[in-house]
Amino acid sequence: MTVRSVAVLGGGVIGLCCAYYLRQAGYEVTVVERDGIGSGASRGNAGEICPDLVEPLPAPGVIGPALRTLHRPDAALYLRPQPSVDLARFLIGFSLHANRKDHRSGAAALAGLAAGTFELFAELECSGVDAKANKDGFLYVYGSTSAARKALRAAHELGAPVDPAGLLDHAELTDREPLLADAARAGFLVADQWSIDPNLFVDGLAGALRAQGVEIVTGARVTRVEESGERTRTHTSAGVIEADRAVLAAGIWTRSIGRAMGVDLNIVAGKGYSFAVPAANPPSRLVHLGDAHVAVNPLGDALRIAGTMEFDTDHDRFDPRRVTAIVAAARPYLSGVDWMARRDEWVGPRPMTPDGLPAIGRLPDHRGVFVAAGHNMLGLMLAPATGRLITELVSGALEAVSAFDPARIAR
Questions:
Q1: What is the rounded distance in angstroms from the CA atom of residue 161 to the CA atom of residue 267?
Q2: Do the beta carbons of residue 237 and residue 245 sit within 8 Å?
């Protein structure tokens, strides 16, 4: 059978990029989004495009420090106390993958997927999806020389393009970025990495899709997907959508759609928070406050301050204590910031997998349904590469990629 039409379930960056590349390949595409375009984790993130720095979150040495502060609402990583079999299953899997072998193989798989990312974003920019990319690299800042030196070694091990200046002291850091305050004792610059405005990227993609004839249906919650012969029927609160193939790209909500089809994907919500604040001396590039686990991205007339990881079964719950914790962690590093003038406070449920790798491929036991979800904290950056890969899988040009096969996290 010749595949002519595809329903993409999810209107975040992953779903939109899947739709974009599928449309470029000649398919008739319909995007179905439960809320508004870019809701979920797509709009409020830090905007990082850093293929030279990709690695899975489970890593040697992360479990011990995390366990010591996991119960504290002001910690960078927080587990909300609640009974959850799903979360327990995820945490067990996470701990099993936090070893050197899995981390190395996972980093290699992610690097392979991310290869050519800058070119893909540049092509999208040329096609009119202009997210105002800042291409001046990332500045990493730490509260001590020892912490900065350790992070610098890790960056070298990843093969990141570290600036030849190497380790920078406080004076050198503030010379480059005057907004840095006394807590910024040492750091280094990783060259050539990009940051973008996620809002512009999402809106640009949606506009490009509509211009190409892609139908985008919003406010339509998917209840189930059925397969009949070589066709799929997606039942939503706005009606039934028929297509030859369906792609589950609904972020954390992919799990509930899969469950309705008899497949339970081990994806849980790791919620991130962000907000905007005015600053007297905004930085010229994205700044990572390493010890604080906070990213600072100059967007428009303000700074986007983003950080934290909160495991919570309520995907939409906003906890103001998490924003207070980000402020407390970032304040000693930044001067001239009006912390009381916060706006655009946001929380988004990042879809986390126990091995830190996305699920991209055919849904187990379902011929016509594919998955593109579970990108952890890398969804924005990996969205174009995922869209291109899904198009190859749907077309039959590629059967599977074992590292990202959804079967590995399914039951």
A1: 32
A2: no
Kindly state the DSSP code that residue 262 receives in the 8-state scheme: T
Pair of tokens at residue 105: 């193989």
pLDDT digits (tens, 9 = 90+) for 190-201: 999 999 999 999
DSSP 410: B
- Displacement of CA 289 from its chain's centroid (Å): 18
Chain position carrying tokens 């039951």: 411
In angstroms, how far is CA 389 from the centroid of its own chain? Answer: 17
Rounded to whole angstroms, how far apart are CA atoms 35 and 161?
39
In sequence order, which ranges of 219-359 are alpha helices (DSSP H)?
Answer: 254-260, 320-330
Q: What is the pLDDT of residues 327-374, one digit of tens each?
A: 999 999 999 999 999 999 999 999 999 999 999 999 999 999 999 999
Spatial distance between the Cα atoms of 230 and 403, rounded to a whole number of angstroms: 27
Strand-pairing partners, residue 29, are 6
Nearest to 292 by CA among 318, 323, 331: 331
Taking the model in full, what pTM does it have? Answer: 0.96
Q: Is 85 exposed, middle or buried (0-12, 13-18, 19+ CB in 10 A)?
A: exposed
* Contact predicate 376/350, CB 8 Å: yes
Alpha carbons 246 and 134: distance in angstroms, whole number: 35
